[in-house]
Amino acid sequence: xxxxPDQVAELxxxxxxxxxxxxxxxxxxxxxxxxxxxxxxxxREETTAAPSERDRFEAPVVFTSRPTGxxxxxxxxxxxxxxxxxxxRVR
Length: 91
Fold this sequence. Notes:
- By secondary structure, the protein is an all-alpha fold.
- It has one domain (about 5-55, about 65-85).
- Helix content is about 60%, strand content about 0%.
- The protein contains three helices and no strands.
- It has helices at about 5-25, 35-50, 70-85.
């Protein structure tokens, strides 16, 4: 899945604008809390108003089955054996 360079640039610009807004108007740095909340709501509204082509959480759910019985036991033992024979990660 390759993103369109224009979309990437637009998302980066939007994120930079949001970060700049937060840095300037956050209540911890002397900004007005009501104005800050209104600005955050405005940014959220803009991002939810233009959803991406496909929401990443709306992908189909796929269930897979694991081998059971003797085959499943053999597969688990083989994986365990390969994992056991790996060299240690510590140098």
